[in-house]
User: Fold Hydroxymethylpyrimidine/phosphomethylpyrimidine kinase from Companilactobacillus allii.
Amino acid sequence: MMNEFIQVLTIAGSDSDGSAGAQADLKTFMARGVYGMSVLTAAVAGNSYGIHDSINMPSSFIKSQIKDIKDDFNVSAFKTGMLSDSEIIRTVAEEIKDKPFGTFVLDPVIITKHGAMLLESEAYQTLIDELFPLADLITPNFYEAKKLSGLELNNHEEIVEAAHKLRDLGPKNIMIKGEHADESMDSVEDFVLLEDGQSFWISEPYVKTEHVNGTGDTLSSSIVAEIAKGESMENAIRISKTFTYHAIKNEIAVGHKYGPINHFIKDDVK
Assistant:
């Protein structure tokens, strides 16, 4: 009877306002019907107006958290989120290199959805060198895919080319999330390149709202949950895209400015 319930893990930072990071991951895990655990890599002091302070967890403490999860639980799939410096990235890579937690979804957290760089150059390269080769799926946003591929992504052809360039860095599957900064857009299109060479575009309507905090965290953690439940990579991505869209569309009034998306939503989601 022990460890029969589906278990998943996020290795990420803590957002004090609950809109993103490990908090968004754990809410998503619960919404998708799996038991979620967390290893915290950092803690952020922030609210809907912005981030005002942060602190990194010591590597020894990150190792202790991972060890305790390994020693007790049966994790089927996991993700990484914010890994803020090279030491933390190397620590996590060392602890997961033998894949003790099953399928690995890497949300790069390199550049914000508005194009602001989050990682210094050394940590950026360490992430590519140490973790990309271990990942079963990476989910870069539009700006991250631009930087990683060196392409401008001005059209579908360049996005497809970028996905192939990213797979050359080591990940088995690639999901390039579409740009959604232009309010004149009708839809947000993502491109997926699977390990077996198959690919597809997936689209949902663009939603004009300031409540988009934690969108990338929610998408990647939903994929983790669906894979742990037995879905294929393709189905997990499709279900998660739909879930994330509805979480954005059905916004909740929390905070004064840039708010969270709605993890309570259930309508039209498998």
User: Anything to note?
Assistant: The first strand starts at residue 7 and ends at 15. Residues 233-249 form the longest helix (17 residues). The chain has one domain: 7-249. DSSP finds eight helices and nine strands in the chain.
